[in-house]
Amino acid sequence: MRRANGRARLRDLGITIGRWPTGPHNAITDVAGVRVGHTTLIHDLPRIARTGVTVILPRTDTEIGNDHAFAGFHSFNGNGEMTGMHWLAESGLLTSPIVITSTHYVGIAHQALVAYSAGHGFAHTWSLPVVAETYDGFLNDAEAFHLKPEHVFEAIAAATDGPVAEGNVGGGTGMICHEFKGGIGTASRVIATPSGAFTFGALVQTNYGDRDLFRVDGAPVGRVIDAKHTPVPDWDGAIPVGGGSSIIVIIATDAPLLPVQCKRLAQRATVGIARVGGVGHNGSGDLFLAFTTANHIAGNATQPAQVSMLPNPQLNDVFEGVAEAVEEAILNALCMAETTTGFHGRTVHALPLDVLVPVMARWRE
């Protein structure tokens, strides 16, 4: 179903990719307990703002600070930032909410998460929260430092399960993807294994890629909807063509996994990105984190924890499902994002859905 603004998710356009079923909302929030919240900042005075912050709460009531989750990290190309990853790689534990925002706002978001954790009893002696970024300086006056701690707190307070707002929202407000308007996207898959059925959800902040590499389910859409049809951004030296921007991928699951298996999950985000046309350019920060809500590690534990894991041979279908979810999350971000004019009057056009649908129909004939 198309929204009032004319935008629609990929499946609402009649375009289905992959073979695994989705969860009820086709979102990262299909993993029980995971919630997502946004604060979106759009104004022209006193300076241009096309930015915001997106928060992922891994457990209900943000108990992640006392009830840690196993997690893993992967860097496809490292021209970006995701804080806290040295300790996460060392310990295998996610111990904070996850914030995604603009490059120049990592510091203020990090400070806000520390303050939030301390104020809610989650930072016993110190805190190394997770904050990830992509750069929105083409559409947003990033040096105005619009983001404040209260905006992070608002996103946390607004976090809910159920459907997730996508496109020009939260941290994705000023982002660009394959030279169309990008932003936040999400999708999920339910994978049946011999150990049971488990849900895998992905949330992405898309801000990467060249137009001519863009594909939908294998169709070379970017070569059809090229600059002659839908204008590409007039970079004018603001961002190197083909050399900049990034994508953040967060994967959540309720499957019982160990940290090394979470890392293997995070690595498979690369497959989903490659299917859409991402190659990990030199100037790109392609950073991925995967966590599981299944095992519970108390922050103040004094006794050995009892944990469980899926046998590694059962991960093949899981890897495929995760790649599908990441691929569809990126496409949902593109389908839901709206044409935006921002900093210095620059305009980034949305992916034209009225062209995408017939292109895909011809491709599948």
Write a structural description.
The chain has 365 residues and is α+β, with helices and mostly antiparallel strands. It contains eight helices and 15 strands. It has helices at 85-91, 106-119, 149-158, 221-224, 259-267, 269-276, 315-336, 353-363; strands spanning 35-43, 49-57, 67-78, 93-94, 98-102, 130-134, 176-177, 180-181, 184-193, 196-207, 246-253, 285-292, 297-298, 340-341, 347-348. The longest helix is centred in the C-terminal third of the chain and has 22 residues, at 315-336. It is globular.
Q: Would you tell me the overall average pLDDT?
A: 93
The figure for the number of domains is 1
Task: State the helical fraction.
Answer: 10-25%
Structural class, from secondary structure content?
Answer: alpha+beta
Strand share of the residues? 15-25%
The number of E-state strands comes to 15
From N to C, what is the helix and strand string? EEEHEEHEHEEEEHEHHEEHEEH
What Rg is obtained from the alpha carbons, in whole angstroms? 19 Å
Overall outline: globular
Q: Tell me the CATH superfamily.
A: L-amino peptidase D-ALA esterase/amidase
- CATH uppermost class: Alpha Beta
Q: How far apart are the first and last residues' alpha carbons, in Å?
A: 23 Å
CATH topology: the name is L-amino peptidase D-ALA esterase/amidase
Parts with pLDDT < 50 across at least 5 consecutive residues? none
Number of helices: 8
Give the CATH architecture.
4-Layer Sandwich
Main sheet record: 7 strands, mixed
Kindly report the oligomeric state of this protein. single chain
